[in-house]
Write a structure and sequence with these properties.
mainly alpha; about 80% helix; about 0% strand; elongated; disordered N terminus
Length: about 350
Amino acid sequence: MLNFILLGLVVLGLVLVYFKYKSNPAPKIESLYTDALNAMVRSDRKLALKLLRDVVRQDSDHVTAYLQMGNILRDNQAEQAVKIHQSLTVRPNLGKELQAEIHQALALDYHALGHLVRAQKEAEQCLRIDKKNMWALQFLLEIAEKNHDWKTASKWAKIVQKQGENKDLFQMAQYKVYEGLDKMESGDKSGAKALFQKAVKDTPTFGTPYFYLGDMYAESRDLVKATENWEQYAHLMPEESGKVFAKIESALFDLGRYSEVENFYRRILDENPNNMEAVAKLANVLEEKGEHNAALSLLEKSLDSENTNIHGLLMKLKLSLYGSTPVELSHQIDQIISQVTRK
């Protein structure tokens, strides 16, 4: 009987020792994993990999450790990262959030390898798991933009904006313009024109399509509509308005309406008095009309110590060639040189 009692005590002791040492590795594994994450935060890739390998050596079921290993390897060993992450997709009983993380990691792996179709499929898998996965939506939008697939980009952008409750009509219109430019390049001018017009209809305050519509109307010699669209572009895109000034002047000249050029520039300056390119153009028009003093006065009024636009300075020098002393001209040239060398 005593022997049985002693044997029972020995067995009990062995059991206690077993469970004691069995339970110890868990805290050790989690501690190693935490240390690995901290090393990743510090960008110590070498240490992070070492710690993660220690983790999976002790616990081959530690899926997140494998996941992070692949993420680290992606930069320099993307193919190895794919193998690691691909092996995780067959693990049973994974939660939806973890499944989505694995497919996200695979999408980034394939993207790093330049395999955009595979990257796209993995991101779409994320959406099958969670249709509101914002990362996947943004990623698919980026892929569509890289592929110049503007219809698909527009589709994803709409969903992204809906999810974020931030409607950006300019972005949608820009995709229409890009699609139109692609059609122009392929020779489909009517298709391009329809897309530019759709962009204008959807977003009337977006300037870019007016520029291309103006060019298309000019090409078909409908100069009235061309000038209307170019002027709209100039009003909506003041910083880029100089791109259409010469076009408008030429079209109005061909229409026999060159006298309207002055009013056009005055309308531009009513909205944006600091548009020095418009100031210089208007000054040139006034000079051509013989209103030399008015032209010079306009420039002097617009140019000051804070506004030393090179275009305006050059126009002022041009108008000052007749009537100014050599000293005054020299001073203007010094201003121009100072402005040029300051850039």
